[in-house]
Amino acid sequence: MPDEIVRWIGEASPRTIVDGTYGGGGHTRLLRDILPAETDSNGLNPLIIGMDRDPAVIRRDDVPEGPGSDPRIELFLGSYEKAPAALAHCERTHADALVLDLGLSSDQLADRERGFSFTLPDAELDLRFDPESDLPAHQWLAFHGEKDIADAIYQFGEERFSRRIARQICLRAKERSPVKTVGDLVDICRRCVPRSKNHDIHPATRTFQALRIAVNDELGILQRTLASAADWIAPGGRIAAISFHSLEDRIVKNAFRDDDRWEILTKKPLRPTDEEVQSNPRSRSAKLRVAARKPD
């Protein structure tokens, strides 16, 4: 929903923007065009802080002639939860806008070494945004018991057959054939999840989503960031958050509703146009919510 992001953020006339999920850099490149041309009375230059947990993303663009070489763009390796530290590094106390696009990037889905896509059966079941930290998903499964695995798949994936799946994962471990690859887990899901009336949903979709969320602490980071954002977003500044499943959308909705410092600008979530869904089918489940920081 690039046009909507530019419009809603542009209305705040931002000078400092945090793109908390930099990914392919698409939002940053568009938002760069709405930055003011001049420094302000305090000598602050217009700036976009692009943040991503994936080292491959930062290495790709933080090169000569890359987006990171633009003086209006600073790229940081790390979760958007660390935005205050990135702002401090840039000698700023507040941002005027925060953009969160909480979906996976196409590059991550296509990376065989990451295991994000269950169409690559030989890939290691990793699922980490930052492959240099925390545990890959197959090790996470090895360190957790059947109940914890079932609870995670049910809570984060809303998968009704979570107990069946967890039982089979643990049976494989007891038989000294633990789940290690994408194909291992897909095979279990195919056997445990009955064919859906909605044939568009792969039987492994909800389980992979759940493990990815658990491994990366995605919902915890989102909750903590939204709880603190009003402390470092300037009055009049805005948050625009695009979510792709109900768990994320619920957190965003409740965070805006429960904190009196936010004015909700989108009473209902905005959805992509038919034209965008046609050109980018992955956008069909996107929901955009926007809120503005009230004056102190």
Automatic annotation (TrEMBL):
<keyword id="KW-0808">Transferase</keyword>
<feature type="binding site">
    <location>
        <position position="80"/>
    </location>
    <ligand>
        <name>S-adenosyl-L-methionine</name>
    </ligand>
</feature>
<dbReference type="InterPro" id="IPR029063">
    <property type="entry name" value="SAM-dependent_MTases_sf"/>
</dbReference>
<dbReference type="Pfam" id="PF01795">
    <property type="entry name" value="Methyltransf_5"/>
</dbReference>
<dbReference type="GO" id="GO:0005737">
    <property type="term" value="C:cytoplasm"/>
</dbReference>
<keyword id="KW-0963">Cytoplasm</keyword>
<dbReference type="GO" id="GO:0071424">
    <property type="term" value="F:rRNA (cytosine-N4-)-methyltransferase activity"/>
</dbReference>
<feature type="region of interest" description="Disordered">
    <location>
        <begin position="272"/>
        <end position="296"/>
    </location>
</feature>
<feature type="binding site">
    <location>
        <position position="108"/>
    </location>
    <ligand>
        <name>S-adenosyl-L-methionine</name>
    </ligand>
</feature>
<dbReference type="GO" id="GO:0070475">
    <property type="term" value="P:rRNA base methylation"/>
</dbReference>
<comment type="similarity">
    <text>Belongs to the methyltransferase superfamily. RsmH family.</text>
</comment>
<comment type="function">
    <text>Specifically methylates the N4 position of cytidine in position 1402 (C1402) of 16S rRNA.</text>
</comment>
<dbReference type="InterPro" id="IPR002903">
    <property type="entry name" value="RsmH"/>
</dbReference>
<dbReference type="InterPro" id="IPR023397">
    <property type="entry name" value="SAM-dep_MeTrfase_MraW_recog"/>
</dbReference>
<keyword id="KW-0489">Methyltransferase</keyword>
<feature type="binding site">
    <location>
        <begin position="25"/>
        <end position="27"/>
    </location>
    <ligand>
        <name>S-adenosyl-L-methionine</name>
    </ligand>
</feature>
<feature type="binding site">
    <location>
        <position position="101"/>
    </location>
    <ligand>
        <name>S-adenosyl-L-methionine</name>
    </ligand>
</feature>
<keyword id="KW-0698">rRNA processing</keyword>
<keyword id="KW-0949">S-adenosyl-L-methionine</keyword>
<feature type="binding site">
    <location>
        <position position="52"/>
    </location>
    <ligand>
        <name>S-adenosyl-L-methionine</name>
    </ligand>
</feature>
<feature type="compositionally biased region" description="Basic residues">
    <location>
        <begin position="284"/>
        <end position="296"/>
    </location>
</feature>
<protein>
    <recommendedName>
        <fullName>Ribosomal RNA small subunit methyltransferase H</fullName>
        <ecNumber>2.1.1.199</ecNumber>
    </recommendedName>
</protein>
